[in-house]
Predict the 3D structure of the following.
Amino acid sequence: MKILLRNANGMLTLLLGVVVFIFYAFFYANHLHFQEQLQLFQFTGPYFIEYISIPSGFTAFLSQFITQFFYLPWVGPVLMALLMVRLQLMVKWVAFRIKRNPSLEPFTFVPPLFLWALLCDENYMLGGLVALVLTLQLIWALTKISSPVVRIIATMIFIPITYWLAGGTAILMPLIMIVFELTRPTENRVSVWWIGAGYLILILISPLIAKNYLVLLPSMQVFIGYGYYRYLIYLPFGILLLWALTFLVMLLYAFLPKSVMDGKKSLPFYISSLFLVWGGAAYLVAGSYNRIAEEVMTYDYLVRTQQWDKAVAIAEKDAPANPLAVASLNLALSQKGLLGDKMFHFIQNGSEGLIPQFDRDYLLPMMVGEVYYYLGLTNTAQRFAFEGMEAIPDYQKSARCLKRLAETNLINGSYEVSRKYLLILQNTFFYKDWATETLAYLGDEDRINNHPEWGRIRKFRPKEDFLFDGNQLDMILGMLIQQEPKNRMAYEYLMGYCLLNKDLPHFMQYVDLGKEIGYKSMPISYQEAALYVWGLQSTDLSQTPFPVNNEVKKRMQTYAGIYTTREDAQMYLEKEFADTYWYYFHYRYKNIIKRNEEFRQMH
């Protein structure tokens, strides 16, 4: 039976690693990319000293070191799988030092499985996992000391050290060591309780000493730790529950009656424990999985890495409905030259699906800044990048934002400011080569002007100062077109802005601005809108004053026939005409205000 359980437990550990890898590789990969972009890990002495100078800074440093590798698509899932497996093994090894019992091993999966569900929330960070692994590793090392006197002295020394290295997770060291000492057959129970009291006093006074004499930090950060939860002012109840569950596993090993697991009862107990733990984990992970957030992060990642084709391909399989994801999709369509033709092939969210107006968020400025950057509004993109970085709740700097700040300053000719950001990026592992290459562009006007991206954006950027007002996007876009009539993206965003707001008079007024762009034919959505306006004035669709494809005319006649004669027209029109501007105009626009309000409340 023992051999059977040992083999089964080994397979379970392997299963944990495999399912965690699959989850992060195929279902939650962009949550890892999201974490990577919101930090700036630097290989410098001052950066290391800055972290080890605060409680839990060491584990925060280690977690950021690991998180930087999430930059690589397949490395992140592998690291998450290895860390989860390591945590399970550490729980098992510490528990086995208390009392070896393979029948209880399913419970050693409780901490990693619960933490897996916890990390589905992007605000829970890798520091909680790293801190727990480190603390359990130190506890396991202490339990290996055979001499009780040496073990007690070493524990008293390591309690404050562990607190400084791992923060609040260190509370597990005195608690587990008390349990460990109580399970030693030769120990005097009274002396153990006195020693345990000393352990607890040490763990309680350690943060008090740090708070009053060593660091100037908020109490939450001193007592709980840094790097566990993104919002430093909130108490991370999930982390506290994780610590409690880890301690309960140790109590289970120490004090569960042996009769429960002996003989014929061991296998039924093992199987029921297995279903309880893994069934509960499946429920928690499924309930914590945030599909909407992952969708937004997916499109944001594809946009910032300029994977335009992939963004469009994903949308064609499953069109996004979230305004932030739709905004990223529309940007991808514009960069592929498809916005005018295919905008209404996907669910649109009004003008907020072009450039969202929501606030109170640190990710939103980064995402919206992408649109302004490619439009040529470099100063606005620069402001959004800076504001987004400064709004990160745990006060991290962002490699993504620094990269954009370096680019906007380079395009604007502020070379020394750009150099400042590039020199910082040279201290990183994955952005170093890009920063070094970009430094060669500073001051080289011809090289910048000939760059396929920076040169185009420099050409399109405003030549005169103006007061930016996000509520007057049509005026700003019109200004960009007047300054540079070949700015196709600005033109298509202006047309899209009018169409999405059902502002057909201004659409017809602006439509001629696109003559210098060089369209082979008017984009399909523009033809549909213009034909609709003409149809309100005349029943003769053959004599339109603008070029319209005959297929578009035939489709509008069919659409109009169904729309005007059937009470259940929407059901019929949705099957054949859901990708037209007419369907958006008559049906989809009605739900936009309600849907966007729901998104604001959720956001």
